[in-house]
Amino acid sequence: MSEVTPASNPLAHVGVRAQRPPEVIQEKRAPTALDAVNLTPGDHWIDTNNSKTYILASKPTGGTPTWIDTSAAAGVTTITGDTGSATGASIQIAGGTNLTSSATGAVVTMNLDNPLSSGIITRGAGAGAENLFTVEHTDNTNVASHATAHIKNGGTSGGDPRLRFEVNGTQDYMMGVDNSDGDKFKLVDGTDLSTGTQRLTIDATANSETHSINKIIHDGIDGSFAGSEKIEQQAGVQTTDATLTVLDSYTLATNSAVSIQWNVVMAKSDHSSGGFGTVTAGARRVGAGAVLISPAIINWTEDDAGAPVPSVTVNGNDLRLNVTGVAATTFNWVSNANIQPVLTNA
Length: 346
Description:
The chain folds into three domains: 1-150, no CATH class; 162-210, no CATH class; 217-342, Immunoglobulin-like (Sandwich). It has no helices and 20 strands. The protein is 0% helix and 38% strand. The chain has strands at residues 2-4, 24-27, 44-47, 52-58, 66-69, 162-167, 171-178, 184-189, 197-202, 208-210, 215-218, 230-239, 244-251, 256-268, 274-285, 290-292, 297-302, 309-315, 318-324, 331-342. The strands form four sheets. Strands 11, 12, 14, 15, 16, 17 and 20 form a seven-stranded antiparallel sheet that branches. Strands 1-2-3-4-5 form a five-stranded mixed sheet, with no helix packed on it. Strands 6-7-8-9-10 form a five-stranded antiparallel sheet, with no helix packed on it. It has 346 residues and is an all-beta fold. The chain is elongated, with a radius of gyration of 33 Å.
């Protein structure tokens, strides 16, 4: 027999209390009962003639050792304690029991390279039952007793360490480190950090970007002013005629007031003319229907002969920023709003 480095195997250490790595034997044949004499449950045997890997599952005193053929196409293995019994290609843990190791500092390892390739799956048993994947440390006496979930790739030429969230058949989000884009930490809408729609990006120097988000709520006010947090939002619209067009709007809640300052910029499609300025307006609402507190304050400058201009109106419960373009002319408008509502201090 010749001893080699432990081979990759999905059942390594399962149900075995030995704290050493599994011993791996390579021979040009399958193992026998006699081969198990000097081995320990959990050790591996590789039949190089038939490209099969076996695991010594049990070695009962006075009984016949049991070898698992991991290449078997079907069957269920049940292992109990340090001995147990095993047949077939997989391990099944009976309902209500756990896969554990009682040895202090022991490691339960599942190597998924061979023969499995689909990863680890946990499934809930029935409706209303929460399906948990928990990393727990029970010590509460030492600040170094961390509970850590570690997601690690193979290196700079490997894939991404990432975590995926899915509403089955409806929506996917993914977060992790994009190994192909400067190791940026990303939150994306989709199933790939490189090609998904980016929502949040943080680079290695801690610079952050938000993507495809048109509203930011600053939750910095005292808690008794619930609903009065500052809001920032952006909007854009294109006009091709002199029709009044809504660029941005804010819906007032019942019994509230709001002050909004819009920074507005406009450019003709060929950039031969443009405009910029600020629009400030306030409104309040008691019951149904908002009202302007006073006429809006508009500071506007433009250099187009058609004089495109912004304006403010109230429609129902909405305070609106409008723009009016020029007939047969294309203008692009963008606004950034700083919104300060006040609801209650109760």
